[in-house]
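## Example pair
The file below holds two records. Each record gives the amino-acid sequence first, followed by its structure token line.
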Amino acid sequence: MFEALAHDLAELPALLEETRTYTARILAGLDERPVTAAAVEHVAAALPEDGGGLRAALRAFESRWEPGFSASAGPRYLGFVTGGTTPAALSGDWLTAALDQNAHGAVGSAAAALERETVARLGELFGLDMPGAFVTGATMSNLVGLAIGREWLGSLRGASTAEEGVTAPVRVLSGTPHSSIGKSLSVLGIGRRRLVSVATLPGREAVDIVALERELAAGPAIVVANAGTVNTVDFDDIRAIAALKSRHDFWLHVDAAFGGFAAASPAHAPLLDGWAEADSVCVDLHKWLNVPYDSAVQFTRRQDLQLRVFENVSPYLGTPGATPDFMHLTPETSRRLRALPAWFTLEAYGRSGYREIVERAIECAREMGARLERNPRWRLLAPVRLNVVCFTLSGAVTTERVAAVLEELTRSGEAFLTPTVYQGAPAIRAAFSNWRTTLADVDRVCAALGA
């Protein structure tokens, strides 16, 4: 065995303890660490000829790279919709690496059974009674749902898209689709131009049901319903969309990347009314579940079609069987056991724990919105419906003014927010989903904004 590798094996308990101590120090400093790091030009170092072992690698990382990493796991990183990692999820992720299971199937490991239990627990949290599987994020979850919908449309024409390819145009209808929908259509060979933008309600991002039905009159399609839009967390009327199935043929895919967690709060669960009738559902987990990147879940009631799309049959892999292995249900054949961090955090904190995390994030978003609304420097662009505050400067707003504000905020190290455009206006988004965030963090962010 190579000398440095043999040494690390012999010293493994001590080296893991050093790594734990170093990790704990980073996490303990998250509240005060600059939320984003200044851009630094890094000169790539050459590959070591021999290497100095793990201890030397830790020292090199600490000096060269760690100072440039953001506090994205912390409570005031409000860009995108970024969660953190709960203590239980962190432990689960360490064990995921230590056990190093290929969670592709049931042979020789309990990994697949644990994933099925975890998916079922998430279904209980969300009120969804459908089989599902873990994937890498919302983009992949949406892609899987759309791929199954594409196969369903082919079956209406008496063909299998999985076998024959896309032989006829596929129409995809949505009011305010996430950018990952267009990306998925590109990957699937459907084409970005097949995404039909359906009219939304006045002053809303929610789809106009009457306009949607007019589009459905043109023939079978895939409908992407939104359960939490990126800018304003608006929700389509999923119940009304599902009711259209009695008159039209369409595949209903619900993109609930982070809005799906409204189900954890009884006060907000009605926003998702009807989503249990969807054909496929996307929920991201490295957002409000607060598990490490990258993790999401996809649900579908048509696993038979899912198997037709993703099956990977080879003599050394075996056949799918009555209960298909996950490698036959998702794009990846080699699959990290992403379910384990999720299992740990659900086991550790349960339904009540996630209700508290979700409701605290909503409380923080509403408090920030109320403060901005009272301050003449700022203007809310939409009601705070859930966990995102969409706002802009008062007066004449330009992209440059917004960029200058965000640059100043980033330089302060107090918070990270992202720019956007809402109804033509340059704007700012503050997205709350981290399990650590409290009203004290809202105080700090608002103070940095002069609000």
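Second record, same layout:
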Amino acid sequence: MPPIDPQYEHYLIARRSVEEALTPTDDQRTTLIIIGAYTAGILVLWNMPFIKYILAPFKLLTVGLHEFSHALIGCLTCARIEYIIIDEQEGGQTMMQGGNPYCTLPAGYLGSSAIGAILVMCGFNLLASKIASIFLGACLLLTLWWAKNWLTRGIGVAFIGMIVFLWWLVHGVGLKYFVLFIGVMSSLYCLWDILDDLVFRKAYESDASKFAKLCGLSSQTWGVIWFLISLIFFAGAILIALVAFKQDKETQQEQAAGFGW
């Protein structure tokens, strides 16, 4: 039998390593099933009469993350944030003076989808979920700082309270499923919001239409581009999690036990 080419042997080793890294563990398979169940449940409940109101608080939360993303990038581009508003029709507005519109306009869609992707990735691991919940709480606190109306403040306080409660409940085990759900919700809401702006709500100007006037191309084109980027964020988060979080459930609980109370 002729000897194997060293380069081909290295290729086989590298391929085997990649396959092993991307092969889910039992706990990761469970998490993938939960992501699928969350996705199916959210899509079914999204516009179902009456039952859709179950999702209403979570929709308002993701609107808050969308507006927070506008405000955060505004701050990073030297804008002065005047206020953030979330309304009862699941819309929102961030009022700012200054900033770079080339960055702030796409920040709502891309920022909220990036936050969703981070939460999905962290939802594969209990310790990472605890850390992600602190990150999410910080986002909500900043949103509260900029909030103008009672609904925006109420959503922020309610979900900060939920995070604190889940930290206390059974040593924070529920945080993993909460963080994962908010991550899936934020990712899906971003994709739906783009379609909603560009297809179903043509009566008012969307971020995509404003960006189209600024940069050229059509609002539909920018919407599709942001849609694809959001999908990449979501898929990339799952792939990174499959590689990074190989610990079994018992190991995760041991690692997370010393973090917080």
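Notes on the second record: The chain has a mean pLDDT of 85. Strands lie at 80-86, 92-97.
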